[in-house]
């Protein structure tokens, strides 16, 4: 399954490059950008009902970081590969006729890699917005909280199954100098997270919305 998803990503990236080649090149020289980002995220709260009790997974997000490489094939079309590291403290809340409590359950360390095509507007101006869409590969691991009455092995770190899905983004570049840009972006990735090697477990909808700010150097 993992190898099949990796091959799918490779085919999509290849198709993006082919599509870019069919677009008429403008007089502007081709350029590339390398970026470094600060990444914050908003993860989806998920609630299940089990035997009359409402079970809620919630998150206290932590700031992460990212890197990106973007190549312009025309003055309006580019392809970007980016990676983001972010995380959150996870809590579980149970509410029902006989019980009502909230407890921490662990720290989630999450990673996403995205490959997308981007369409840029007003690129010759100081403020240049863009939109993008493509594929995302997401995975992570959870470090559970250790409680005093845990048996040995109960609190071992476990992996979240890798997942391939679509992604979409909207952002803007603000020119600081001819070669340095400030950039802000919002990116959405639908993600149903499930523990690896545990297909019977109920998936948790993380669906991260990432808010990122960074600096790009054009060369």
Word description of this protein:
The structure is a single chain. With about 220 residues, this protein is mainly beta. It has a single domain, classed as Porin (Beta Barrel). Helices cover about 10% and strands about 60% of the residues. The strands form two sheets. An eight-stranded antiparallel beta barrel has the order 1-3-4-5-6-7-8-11. The protein has a two-stranded antiparallel sheet with strand order 9-10. A hairpin with a 4-residue loop joins strand 3 and strand 4 (about 75-95). It is elongated. The model is unreliable at about 20-25 (pLDDT under 50).
Radius of gyration using CA atoms only: 20 Å
The major pleated sheet works out as: 8 strands, antiparallel, barrel
Write down the CATH class: Mainly Beta
Strand order of the largest sheet: 1-3-4-5-6-7-8-11
Measure the end-to-end span. Answer: 37 Å
- Content of β-strand: over 45%
Give the overall shape. elongated
From the helix content, strand content and strand pairing, which structural class follows? mainly beta
CATH architecture: Beta Barrel
Task: Give, in order, the helices and strands.
Answer: HEEEEEEEEEEE
CATH topology: Porin
Weakly predicted, low-confidence segments:
22-27
Overall tally of domains: 1
**Roughly how much helix do the residues carry, as a percent range?**
under 10%
Q: Mean pLDDT, as a whole number?
A: 83
Total DSSP E strands: 11
